[in-house]
Every structure is written in structure tokens, then in C-alpha cells.
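Page 47, continued from p. 46.
Same chain as before, 143 aa.
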Amino acid sequence: MHSNSAPFVSRRHFLQTAGTLSAALVTGLPEQTHAAPGVSVLETKVISLDHHHYHGWPTLMRRRNGQLMLVYSGGREEHICPFGRVEMMVSNDDGQTWGWPRVVFDSDIDDRDAGVLETEAGTLLINTASTLSYDTLYLQAAL
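Result:
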């Protein structure tokens, strides 16, 4: 039993009410229109010089010096496998040609989801996430 001093509000009722109020606030605000950035796809092409491996989760950026830098998960046998590593490629001619990939990071487990940015000081920061998600897949295949 609940005391009579305060009404009992179920979690479900609270979430429904909060959702309704949130929707009312969002739809009640004046509309702000922003033009979407213009994007033109000039071409698509395979740039990998390593055609025997699967590549995934790329991040592309243009450095202040104009160089294009691409980081991605390479060295893979397939989407889910223990061999992913972070690789980097650069282009000095706006993507017309690309250098051979360099391994930036290769741990004992699957490295993927690479990202890259250049700081104001010109320092390059490359991040990644590693996973053991392949573990279950490989164990099931062994059984």
C-alpha cells in the first residue's frame, strides 16, 4: 500500500507522460531551417592495393596541408575475424593515387572502427575500438 500523502506514479506512466511532454515541446518550437551541406559524388573506385583482404569502417579526412588521410580496419579475412588491424593510407593528389597501407595499430584481438583527426597543433590522433566478438563465432565453428 502507498501512503495517501503522495500519489503513486508507475514507471510506465512517468515515461509515457515525459514522452508526450517532450514531443509537445519539440513540435511546439519554432522551426529552424538549415540548408543541408551540398555533396557531389564525383566517382567511386577501389583504392586498396591489398585485394586479398577485407577492409571496413573507414574514416577519411583532409589535413591542413591538403593531404588526404584514410584510416580503416584492414588485414581482415572477413567482417568478423580476429585479424583486424588499423591501417592508414595517404594521397597527395586529391585521391587520384594512394600510397601503400601502413599498419598503425595491431593488437592481439580484432581492431576496428578507426577514426582520425588533426589537432590545431598539427598532431594526428588515430583512435580505434577492439573487440572479442569473433570469439563466439570461432568457438561455434570449432564445435
